[in-house]
Amino acid sequence: MSDADDSARAEAQPRDGRDGENEGLANTTENRGAEAEEPAKNVPWGRPTACAAADGLSECYPMNRRPRGAALIFAHSKFDNKDLKPRPSAAHDAELARGAFEALEFQPEVFLDLTRNDLEGKLSEVAKRDHSGCDALAIVFMSHGEVKPRNNMEFVWAKDDKIPTKELWINFTAERCAGLAGKPKLYFIQACRGPDVDKGVNMTRAVRGMAVQTDSIEEYVIPIHADQLVMWASYPGFPAFTSQREGIQGSVFIHFLAENLRNYALSSPRPSLSSILLKVSREVAVLYESDIDSQNQYHKNKQVPYIHSTLLREIYF
């Protein structure tokens, strides 16, 4: 193959890029309007009751059951909206995630290119399952993302329509899913969160020289949004990248997340999940830099994952 052929092929299939690089989404229709911003609250007044999975001040979540719980993996590669570019790495990323959570002794369930109704139906169905025999729930969602400029509300895309990102976890809060109350719910989201540019900052360093068990019943109250961790691929307002370099064959965030979770499953003693996710963030931020056309504003951009957590305890799988 000639050098010209190689060059043309490289232009057609850049090694790195924003996950989707979509344009023209500002005018898309939002079918739900206000309902999308505030999901209906069907919870009656009063305080529901659920069985405690751990003592109120316990430092760790119990992680003794096998399987530990469901790991739902949603990957989207094709979209009805023509402004949304295909995501050819979706199946590869889904397989990485499946292998990682299988190694952690979760029970993976993989779903490809679900419509909005099918996605919402699956989330609702899982929330209604009996989770009394589980220690945790994990959800990995991979698709395009979008931010509503008026109020910075975030959306992710199913095959045919978008949903507010919070719909991914709204069914699993303590008052809606009693079987998971007090148990960790882990959400990992691979999707762009905006178009901002991050060129990074050069850093230099000067080197100089070389609890007692009882038979009593404990009761305590937790907030309805406790015990959740949401980890996005990128900081709010910034894109998430894909790459075909340095052993990465898809989403940068999913690559480092799956790699570290698999290694975590093989380590002994196992560190806490929080330390592993810190390592994922560090490796994405330090080891990756985009390599696109030098004239592209996203050339030599950095990426850092973003975590929002209401977990009350450490997690050791």
UniProtKB/TrEMBL annotation:
GO terms for molecular function: cysteine-type endopeptidase activity. Signal peptide: none annotated. Residues 1-21 have a biased composition (Basic and acidic residues). InterPro entries: Caspase-like_dom_sf, Caspase_cys_AS, Pept_C14, Pept_C14_caspase, Pept_C14_p10, Pept_C14_p20, Pept_C14A. GO terms for biological process: apoptotic process; positive regulation of neuron apoptotic process; proteolysis. PROSITE patterns: CASPASE_CYS, CASPASE_P10, CASPASE_P20. Residues 235-317 form the Caspase family p10 domain. It comes from the Eukaryota. GO terms for cellular component: cytoplasm. It holds the Pfam family Peptidase_C14. Residues 67-196 form the Caspase family p20 domain. Belongs to the peptidase C14A family. This is Caspase.
